[in-house]
Amino acid sequence: MINPIERITQNRIIQLFQKELGYTYYGNWEKREHNSNVEEVILKQNLLQRGYSETLADKAVKEVYDLATTNSGNLYHRNKAMYSILRYGVKARPDLGEQFDTIFPIDWQNFGKNEFGIAEEVTLTKGENNRRPDVVLYINGIAVGVLELKRGTTDISESINQSISNQRVLFNEWFYTTVQLLMAGNNTQGLKYGTIKTENKYYLAWKEDEADNEGYKLDKYIKKLCQKERLIDLVYNGVVFDAGQKKLPRPHQYFALKEAQNFVKRKEGGIIWHTQGSGKSLMMVMLGKWILENIANSRIVILTDRTELDDQIERVFKDVGETDVAKTRSGKELMAFLTSSRPRLVCSLIHKFGNKTETDFDAFIKDLQNNPVQTQGEIFVFIDECHRTQSGKLNQVMKAVLHNAVFIGFTGTPLLKEDKKTTMDVFGRYIHTYKFNEAVEDGVVKDLMYEGRAIEQKLTSQSKVDQWFEAKTAGLNDFQKNEIKKKWGTMQNVLSSKSRMEKIVTDIIVDFSVKPRLKSQNGNAILVASSIYEAAKYYSLFLNTELKNKCAIITSYNPHASDVSLEDTGADSETDKEFIYKIYTDLLKDVSIKGNKSKTETYEADAKEGFRKEPARMKLLIVVSKLLTGFDAPPCSYIYIDKKMQDHTLFQAICRVNRLDTDDKDYGYIIDYMELFGKVTDAINVYTSELDSEGFTKEEVGIQLKDRRKIAKDRLFTALETVESICENVAAPKDGLAYIRYFCGNTEIAEDLKATEYKRMALYKAIVEYIRAYANVKADFFSAEFTGAEIKRFNDKLEDYLNLREIIRKASGETIDLKAYEADMRFLIDTYIKAEESEVISPFENISLLDLLETDMDTAIDNLPNEIKGNPEAVAEVIENNVRSKIVEEHLLDPKYFDHMSVLLQELIERRKQETINYQQYLKEIAALIKQVNQGKEDGLPKSLNTKGKIALYHTLEDDEQLTLACEDAVQYAKQDGFRENLAKQKLVKKAIYHVVEDVKKVEEVYRIIDSHKDEY
Q1: Taking the CA of residue 209 as centre, how many other CA atoms within 13 Å lie in the half-sphere pointing to its CB?
Q2: Most confident of 183-192, 277-286, 435-444, 946-955
Q3: Which residues does the UniProt record annotate as the domain Helicase ATP-binding (predicted)?
Q4: 25 has which bridge partners?
Q5: Which helix (H) or strand (E) holds 215?
Q6: Residues facing 452 on adjacent strands
């Protein structure tokens, strides 16, 4: 049977629970009276079987039943209280004056001692309206799971919505006080799960053993989730109550938890790489909770570099009942906590470890290693965004202070080559990975859509610029003139001209008027500027637009009068710092300080809160680097990038827009003004591909680190030798004057300075190489087995050479204070650079980035998106296959339209193969076709056809607008809830269609369209 009715599916599932999972079948409880979420007789019987006395069993049953059936408070708080007594037990005395005992309604340690049962059609009568869940799962008579089933042609979301509405007070909210797991399923879409009060969009499919394709996915995943031991484990270790929301782990979190448990048992550290937005904080909580409960004498230190995350982690742990938590306010306090036995969980900001000055730092490390801090307990260290914070000094201090600790790093991005140098040293290998493409596929985050925009700039008067330059730099030497030219770059390419910025501001204002998500005020946007000056400039420009009072600037800047005290250049003009200071003092003047925050912190906290919760009131945040990592704002839909970025920074930035939100959020949009197309696709390629280090063993990681240390050590010695050889011929006594004479000659004679220039350039280059080599190996000074004398020599030499470089630069006049020229240069840029209107330069509009990667577009398109490289024939074939699969996927929704698209595609392929079209023209036409396929409609349709369903009807009814609208009205009037599963209701719909089209064959075609558009009919 192709589409069996729900009853047949339900019978099969009931059999599965009994025969394959070993559940007891309690029967069909449709007619049974007094169905409850706690079947007292079953619970008492199980408690007695497990050895509790009758008195204790009765007391436990009464406490569970009373809480399960009370209607005080809201469902979340009742469910949380119930979870607490199920998990931690009921405290009761056998008799007055006796010791309290703990009675566990569910035996979490020995799952086989529990009674697992199911009942079907469980009629619930206590609400105002009766409801009848299809299947209820009981453990020891306590309702812990509800499964709603539908036939294969009914979308799974209808089952989910039914479950959600059952939890309303109007229906049977009381029943869900004990429920932990809610499931919805059918034969075609499989199974989705959530818990109480989970919104439809957050219900997820379980994923495991994907290669297993036997039987229905519904059956497969019921067996995975409801297998007795798995269900007990999931509820016991996976449930988290977080700030008013109950959460269950997603599959990737559950399997990461299981893998991490194995690492922890072996006392081995590692890295959990879960892509941005996939719930790393929750992962930390679940693993932390498990460690504290299962590892004797364990303690956890959670280090993060963001105050927000520090606060969130403390709150979530307290919410899950872990009250022995403390946040440290200083490095000293952190040490005090670690050397005493309490608290068991310490949250700290990462910089609390790095409070030593440069001069005494090495002595401090050496002292720590010679006199280790006597920490108490088995310490596990969790570190957020471990690739970012663990290089250099902090790495050394952590390893010295916490020498016996197990380090577990959490990251949203994989370790690129340069990160592995330090990160794998601290943490070891990957524990578990969950990549960006997997998260998109699972519906955990939104896919990304890319659009490149170019703004051409022209120099309006080269001669004026040249005249100004000569006049202003008349007193400078060649080096100083070059420094000014270098600082500002070729005039045509200076990006921060006022004219260009005004065009971007106009662009964004237009987007807020025309882009559906921004126009509806459900979504908002982030603009990334290149510098604090540019962010402030953008902010000042937005103050003259409709976004005034609806945008904010968030940077690392905090205004102090000292910022501008040295900025006066004697000219009546404003330097960059003075401009920034003025903008900030203006915007902060009316801010009232809250709590112990500064004015800037108060302003930023309010702006972020508004951005997250009231997108219509806070529409745009202008940032430089703050908020580009770890800032979760579901409404954020667009990111405008006006800053050169790559790798981690770029990927983390674009992931600000990929969080799930309301149903109208289809993608996260990246608008790129910096021609970063190649870098964006490269970044996503890295974050979706397998990395060579994923399969490393512990030993291989060790060997790799050893090799790296040797290379770094050799490089440092070589760099030092190079500088020393350049300075070898300096005359005795090798003091400051001797160095100046050798590297500059007579500084008053221009010819001498010119003649010695090559020596200075060689010196500067060699010192830079020494600084780099030194920084690279600094974190490993002790582990790389340098002697104390060698370390002292490296440190002393570094200081000597930095001083030498400054002496030589100043003596030769090869330094310049650019402040004096800043305001003039800004004036020049704003006056003589004119920007054109922005132009979209993405060759393939409206294709998601993952679609682009699947079609291997990044190998076909060079960094400038419209330049094609590689093998044109091969690239064309991949594009065509991608378009064809999209047509097939969408075909049912509008057969006539997609048949037409298929014909157009075939014609284009033929023309390409017969070479009647050149490659550039082919790319243009295929891009236009892709746009039409993605839109699902052609341009120029009547305005009345404002839904996909109406458009599909229009195509089916031979482009007859009146007939389409008449048909739409007839169907909307005739359709009844659940018509797809009910033949009598289907006939009513078909009859209504027939009265309009008067053609039996056409009725079936129209009905198929109605049936396919489940969100509209």
Answers
A1: 9
A2: 183-192
A3: 261-432
A4: 118
A5: none
A6: 672
Cα(730)–Cα(742) distance, rounded to whole angstroms?
6
d(CA 396, CA 383): 14
Write the CB contacts of 674 (distance below 8 Å, at least 6 apart in sequence): 495, 641, 642, 643, 644, 645
Residue 687: pLDDT band by 50, 70, 90 thresholds?
A: low
Residue 471 to residue 877: CA distance in whole angstroms: 59
- The packing angle between helices 280-294 and 307-319, to 10°, is 50
DSSP string for residues in 658-700: ----STT---EEEEESS--HHHHHHHHHHHHS--GGGG--HHH
3-state secondary structure of 554: strand
pLDDT in tens, 964-995: 888 888 888 888 877 877 778 888 889 989 88
Strand ranges for 254-377 from DSSP E: 270-274, 298-304, 325-327, 345-349
CB atoms within 10 A of CB 915: 9
Nearest by Cα to 44 from 105, 2, 111:
105
Q: Taking each helix axis from N to C terminus, what angle separates 961-974 and 948-956, rounded to the nearest 10 degrees? A: 120
DSSP symbol at 730: P
| DSSP assignment string, 880-904 | HHHHHHHHHHHGGG-HHHHHHHHHH
CA 133, CA 605: separation in Å to the nearest integer?
A: 44
In the sheet that 551-554 helps form, which strands lie side by side, from edge to edge? 551-554, 620-623, 524-529, 636-642, 668-672, 448-454, 839-840
> How many Cβ atoms from other residues are within 10 Å of residue 510's Cβ?
12
- Three-class SS state of 620: strand
Residue whose pair of structure tokens reads 């309303």 in the numeric block: 168
Return the bridge partners of 183, or none. 147, 193
Strands (E) across 50-113 are located at 90-92, 101-103
Question: CA nearest 264: which of 91, 103, 406?
Answer: 406
What the block records as the tokens of 265 is: 């048992």
Rounded to the nearest 10 degrees, how much is the dihedral formed by the CA atoms of 71, 73, 75, 78?
Answer: -90
**Three-state DSSP class for residue 90:** strand
Q: Is pLDDT of 418 > 70?
A: no
Domain ranges of the chain: 4-236, 249-434, 457-626, 700-812, 948-1012
Give the integer Cα–Cα distance in Å for 674 and 595: 40
| Nearest one of 729, 815, 716 to 764, comparing CA atoms | 815
Give the helix/strand (H/E) hosting 412.
Answer: none
Amino acid letter for position 621: L
Distance CA 854, CA 78 (A): 47
* pLDDT for 843: 54
Q: Are 959 and 981 in contact (CB under 8 A)?
A: no
Q: What is the gyration radius of the CA atoms in the chain, in angstroms? A: 34
| Tokens standing for residue 712 | 């770094």
Nearest to 763 by CA among 746, 794, 740: 740
The angle, 0 to 180 degrees and rounded to 10, between the axes of the packed helices 757-778 and 698-726 is 150
> What is the 8-class DSSP label of residue 559?
-
According to the model, what pLDDT value does residue 546 have?
92
Reduced to 3 states (helix: H, G, I; strand: E, B; else coil), residue 406 is strand
Q: Note whether 149 and 13 are within 8 A (CB).
A: yes
Q: What residue type is 824 in one-letter code?
A: D
Q: What is the DSSP letter of 847?
A: -
Question: How far is 838 from 836, CA to CA, in rounded Å?
Answer: 6
Residue 718 has pLDDT above 60, yes or no: yes
Q: Which residue has the tokens 């024939």?
A: 873
Peptide bond into 343 cis (omega under 30): yes
Alpha-carbon distance of 116 to 17, in angstroms, equals 10
Nearest to 582 by CA among 623, 533, 545, 546: 533
Distance CA 585, CA 867 (A): 46
Query: How long a stretch of residues is the chain?
Result: 1017
CATH, range 249-434: 3.40.50.300
